[in-house]
Amino acid sequence: MKKLWTFLRYFFSFVGGGIGVLILYYNYSFFSEKLYHIGPLFLYLIFFLFFFFIFYLLFPPVYKLINLLVNIIDKFLSSLSLAELLLGIFSVLISLLISYLFYALISKIPIVGPYIGILIAIFVFGVTVGTLIKRRKEILEAMKIQPKRFGERTPKEKKLYPKYLLDTSAIIDGRILELIDSGFIDGTILIPTFILEELQMVADSEDSSKRVRGRRGLDILQRLKEEYPEKIKIFDAKGERIPIDTKLINLAKKMKAKVITTDFNLSQVARTRGIKVLNINELAHALRKVVLPGERLQVRIVKEGKERAQGVGYLDDGTMVVVEDGKYHIGEVVDVEVTSLLQGPTGTMIFGDIVNDRGSSSRRR
């Protein structure tokens, strides 16, 4: 950037020097009378260097002014759709044509004709542009309907794929790999650099458990880049020094992207800001098997429960099953009849009784 700035400044200065030479060229007789004691070659050199130096000093404020005008124009144009922009250009061209015709006609009047022609041309230009811009909605609607009237085929709308911002917790979790592989996430997954920095900090933590989670996250990230290079995009987005979650939410709002996470608090805050969130834990909970009282399950009892004689097992999706008298069958696979369900903040807990050989549930007294 600095090299470009230097190049533009010297280029601008050389243009200024050239303007100085032209000024002297077209007014040489005047300056030669005043500066008759200076030779022509030396005089041209003086003018060139003088204007070169003036333009060199003027470049910074001129550059700032141009940059300001470009930003203002860009901001204005970005608020317009392509159709509105084309309509604006079309309006100006039509207005210029009509204004010129009026000027050409009225300027033939002797003496005052050209002056009146200019005034009327400006007036006609303003009225024509104002009328077309005021009726822009009707014109744009007519342009949209036109192909259908003549039986022409309208081009198919381009399919827009959603954008996703991946949170650190979702990377460490690892289930994002299965979601992409199964086709549930169809779009571009964006990973800002500040997420990578947070992942690196977790991997370098003094806490051994955090360090293991961080290194697992780095391994998952490497697999994502290798297996899905067309979907995963890492981009530079450091920004201001604010909390990572706030930075991610602000970025999602700016990019109109969805957030993939396993963080409950981040999900809640993002939703209050109007951002769509895909919480992997909520998805896993929604896909868990629906079990109703009276149904029978096969469960392996793996440990004792909190209450007397209870045993605990787990379904394939991780749902906890509390079995009465299961304490006496640890390590065994038993048939369990569901008696009740308990819905908690972390998921559903199933309670049941062991079914004996006769097909009825029984409890050890």
Describe this structure in words.
The chain has 365 residues and is an alpha/beta fold. The protein is 56% helix and 16% strand. The chain is built from 13 helices and 10 strands. The protein has helices at residues 2-26, 28-34, 40-78, 82-106, 113-134, 136-149, 168-173, 176-182, 193-203, 208-227, 244-255, 264-272, 280-286; strands at residues 163-166, 188-192, 232-235, 258-261, 277-279, 296-304, 311-314, 320-324, 333-344, 347-354. A 5-stranded parallel sheet has the order 3-2-1-4-5. It has a 5-stranded mixed beta barrel with strand order 6-7-8-10-9.
Helix-strand blueprint:
Layout: H1 2-26, H2 28-34, H3 40-78, H4 82-106, H5 113-134, H6 136-149, E1 163-166, H7 168-173, H8 176-182, E2 188-192, H9 193-203, H10 208-227, E3 232-235, H11 244-255, E4 258-261, H12 264-272, E5 277-279, H13 280-286, E6 296-304, E7 311-314, E8 320-324, E9 333-344, E10 347-354
Parallel strand pairs: 1-2, 1-4, 2-3, 4-5, 8-10
Antiparallel strand pairs: 6-7, 6-9, 7-8, 9-10
Helix pairs in contact: 1-3, 4-5, 9-10
